[in-house]
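FAQ: What does the model actually see?

It sees only this:
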Amino acid sequence: DQRLGAEGGAGAQLQQALSLAKITLAAEQLGVASEALDLAVAYTLEREQFGRAIASYQAVKHKAADMKLKVEVARSSVYYAACVASEVLAEDGDERIAAELDEAAAMAKGYCSDTVFFNAGNALQLFGGVGFTAEYDIQLYFKRAKASELYLGNGAVQREQIAAMLLDGESA
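And it is asked to produce this:
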């Protein structure tokens, strides 16, 4: 009497729960990636080398711009996945959109997994050697980025799942 639906029918509900978990994790990864960028920018604005803030150097600006670009694309993927999830979970939701949930979740998780590790790694580089010390929180963001990147499948695994969804039913 504690089953998820009819006997043998729990697979769809479990898959939906996994997709929702991926979207939730992707949103967390977006927050970590965004905060890693903010921490790096704040540090580079205060850290001086050769009489000026290191944020004024072109190479640092380019790295920060790449990080910002990835955050904004990740934000779009999370928003899209959240909208699909909202439609699926609505009482009067469209049944046709339920098929998009797995794909949207995999896209968001895949891109956010890549983004969070990229941003945390670059932020750690911008902090230099002090980034690994307990004095700065960026080391915690880096560790969280690596752990969340692997949880529920990294970017490569998500892209494989998307490819399988798109190619399902086609002969090779």
